[in-house]
Please model this.
Amino acid sequence: MSLGKKILKYQEAVNKIKECRERGLKVILTQGAFDIVHIGHIEYFREAKKLGDVLFVGVENDKSVRINKGKKLPLNNLRDRLEFLTELKSVDYVFGFVDEPVYKKDKAFDMYTQRFKDLNPNIIVASTSELASHLQLKKDQAKKVGIKIIIVNHGKKNSSNKVLKVIGYD
Model:
């Protein structure tokens, strides 16, 4: 099956997910910063892909990463992060988000809920490595729009924070 180009704009991702679902394919969505991709991410994407036919990865834009993870991040800009992820065998499509949700229930809830409504995958995948408050927020948002959410353990073999500490980046 030829999937075409792998890096999509947000609206292209919305349309491609709709097209895939109309073809009877099970669409999986996950999202994150994915600034420093490590073996834990690889395992996570591999497990997410097993849940369906097509894996879409939404990537937070640079401003969102700075707001939520620190002013010195991301180390890699959005375009580079998207391009890197296209090289992973389990990832079918990647796209960047144009909005900047702040990871607080009162501010991010509606924005993420709208994302989930727009994209409308069969399943949203989240990671056990996410902070408990973020994980509960995603569960609440998925429930609100009626999309199944599955929590995947990515093995905890590594973490971006651990990598940053090892290389002396603070």
Residues 105-119 form the longest helix (15 residues).
